[in-house]
């Protein structure tokens, strides 16, 4: 399997798992992100894998699980869209990945941090990640951030959690503050 596109997926996941400090209805914040364990093996499991070279996409269907170290991404489905001429996604050329989409009970977990939503997408060209759902929940231990759309601009680390008509909600645990 193509480790590089999985690394990109995991990078998206790790950025989602960073703490967001938003106190307004729609708020843009800095996200520090987490480092990938590039030296650790990556395991992908799904009920089915279908590579459609003519359509330039790979479909992972049913109980998709991507694991690297202590980080795990789960979804019902994952589609990897690729571009380029002649190469199949199975050839291992990560530069040909256009975008990655996940849907169906999307869950990201890394240590004490987690994120969940209904759908997610990562555009390789713009390096923009989105996670959407009726309730997108980011949690870092007891600190919980809730909205319905999270957008992360990976190039500059900016993130925006949107309410989609309601309000962004935050629950902060004062015991989670780091002491110097």
Automatic annotation (TrEMBL):
Residues 1-24 form the signal peptide. Keywords: Signal. Residues 43-157 form the Organic solvent tolerance-like N-terminal domain. The keyword Signal applies. The keyword Signal applies. InterPro entries: LPS_export_LptA (IPR052037), OstA-like_N (IPR005653). Pfam families: LptD_N. PANTHER family: LIPOPOLYSACCHARIDE EXPORT SYSTEM PROTEIN LPTA. This is LptA/OstA family protein. It comes from Rhizobium alvei. The lineage of its organism: Bacteria, Pseudomonadati, Pseudomonadota, Alphaproteobacteria, Hyphomicrobiales.
């Amino acid at each position: 399997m193509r480790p590089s596109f999985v690394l990109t997926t995991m990078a998206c996941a790790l950025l989602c798992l960073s703490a967001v400090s938003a106190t307004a209805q729609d708020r843009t914040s800095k996200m520090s992100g987490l480092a990938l364990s590039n030296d650790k093996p990556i395991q992908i499991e799904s009920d089915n894998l279908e590579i459609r070279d003519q359509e330039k996409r790979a479909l992972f269907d049913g109980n998709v699980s991507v694991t690297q170290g202590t980080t795990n991404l789960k979804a019902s489905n994952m589609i990897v869209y690729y571009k380029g001429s002649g190469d199949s996604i199975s050839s291992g050329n990560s530069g040909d990945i256009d975008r990655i989409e996940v849907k169906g009970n999307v869950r990201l977990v890394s240590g004490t941090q987690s994120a969940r939503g209904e759908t997610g997408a990562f555009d390789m060209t713009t390096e923009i990640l989105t996670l959407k759902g009726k309730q997108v929940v980011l949690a870092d231990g007891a600190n919980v951030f809730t909205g319905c759309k999270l957008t992360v601009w990976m190039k500059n680390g900016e993130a925006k959690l949107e309410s989609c008509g309601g309000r962004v909600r935050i629950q902060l645990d004062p015991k989670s503050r780091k002491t110097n």
